[in-house]
């Protein structure tokens, strides 16, 4: 798992942080890329039916259900705050990613070029290659 050893590292939130709380369905480390998982029909048509526990969070299995970046460590079953927008220092896997290009992620919390079958999670602001960190502007 290629999570930044310093944990969650926010470069900028664009002036409008988009932070929400859900509940970890497994042990999560700060800085991990997250996916959502849960049962159907947990909310009704009114906001009064919504609780943070309705959002189940898992380690993202490769971008298919990417929702954001974990802001802190959390045990399974514990509340977990995550950012759905912002710019973060994330590690590159494989081929060079060029500044300004759209990127996806893999199941190791690494940034990959947005090739065939890779779901877009954001755009990089700096260039990097294998094991480099790049400034990545994400959108969940």
Explain this structure.
The chain has 140 residues and is mainly beta. It has two domains: 17-84, no CATH class; 86-139, no CATH class. The chain is 0% helix and 39% strand. The chain has no helices and ten strands. It has strands at residues 10-12, 18-24, 33-36, 56-59, 66-70, 79-92, 102-105, 110-113, 122-124, 133-139. Strands 1, 2, 3, 4, 5, 6, 7, 8, 9 and 10 form a ten-stranded mixed sheet that branches. Strand 5 (66-70) and strand 6 (79-92) form a beta hairpin. The model has no long low-confidence stretch (mean pLDDT 88).
Structural class: mainly beta
Count of discrete alpha- or pi-helical segments spanning 4 or more residues: 0
Alpha-carbon distance between the two ends: 20 Å
Number of domains: 2
- The overall pLDDT average reads 88
Helix content: under 10%
Mass-distribution shape: elongated
Strand content: 35-45%
* H/E topology pattern: EEEEEEEEEE
Sheet with most strands: 10 strands, mixed
Give me the count of strands. 10
The low-confidence parts are none
Overall radius of gyration = 15 Å
Write the layout of secondary structure elements.
Elements lengths: L9 E3 L5 E7 L8 E4 L19 E4 L6 E5 L8 E14 L9 E4 L4 E4 L8 E3 L8 E7 L1
Brief digest:
The chain is mostly beta strands.
Question: Which properties best describe this structure?
Answer:
140 residues; mainly beta; ten-stranded mixed β-sheet; 10 strands; 39% strand
């Amino acid at each position: 798992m290629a999570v930044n050893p310093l944990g969650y590292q926010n470069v900028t939130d664009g002036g409008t942080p988009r932070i929400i709380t859900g509940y970890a369905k497994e042990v999560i480390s700060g800085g991990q890329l997250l996916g959502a998982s849960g049962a159907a029909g947990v909310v009704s048509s009114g906001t009064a039916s919504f609780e943070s526990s309705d959002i189940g969070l898992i380690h993202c299995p490769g971008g298919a259900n990417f929702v954001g970046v974990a802001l802190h460590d959390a045990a399974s079953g514990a509340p977990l705050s995550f950012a759905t927008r912002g710019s973060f220092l994330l590690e590159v896997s494989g081929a060079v990613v060029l500044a300004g290009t759209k990127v996806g992620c893999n199941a190791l919390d690494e940034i990959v070029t947005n090739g065939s079958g890779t779901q877009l999670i954001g755009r990089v602001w700096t260039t990097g290659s294998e094991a480099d960190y790049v400034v990545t502007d994400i959108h969940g």
